[in-house]
Amino acid sequence: MRLYFENPVGRLLEHPDGYALVQYAPGARDFPTFQAFLTHTSQLLRRHGWHKMLADQRQMAPYTDEERTWIREFWLARSESEGYEMFGAILLPADVFAQLTLNQVMRDSQQSSLTYRLFDGEPAAVAWLKELA
Fold first, then answer.
1. Which of 3, 47, 98, 129 could share a disulfide with 93, CB 3.0–4.6 Å?
2. Is the dihedral of CA 62, 68, 74, 77 positive or negative?
3. Cα within 13 Å of Cα(101), Cβ side
4. Domain locations along the chain
5. How far is CA 8 from CA 29, 55, 56, in A?
6. Pair type for strands 10-15 and 19-24
7. Number of C-alpha atoms within 13 angstroms, CB side, residue 113?
8. CA-CA distance, 77 to 4, in Å (whole number)?
9. CA nearest 88: which of 69, 66, 105?
10. How far apart are CA 24 and CA 5, in angstroms?
11. Per-residue pLDDT tens for 84-133?
12. DSSP string spanning 82-117?
């Protein structure tokens, strides 16, 4: 795997199987750094013409209200308006509050271009991504 981008929010890696590996770091995030992280995620996907990502959120802190709103109103809305379909295999956060905010983001994304599944372990998540065309 090749490192594409890294900041205090996490790391973005180019997986040789044709998907982005999005690894969230533990700890609090500042909003502009979070925006940059997801913007680079979009750029990585579009650069390669990929539509799949494995989001490792196991160490992630809960989303803030500001982050959730931005994901829904900008990040997902932009992909939707461009007709860019995405598939996300998401590894569940260990933190219960992070799981709750993740569920809110997933509810918000039901009408978006993101199709996702939640997983407890990486092998099942990778297997699901491989099943996708």
1. 98
2. positive
3. 17
4. 2-131
5. 7, 16, 15
6. antiparallel
7. 18
8. 24
9. 105
10. 12
11. 789 999 999 998 889 888 888 878 776 677 888 999 999 999 999 999 96
12. TT--EEEEEEPPSSHHHHHHHHHHHHHTTTSSEEEE
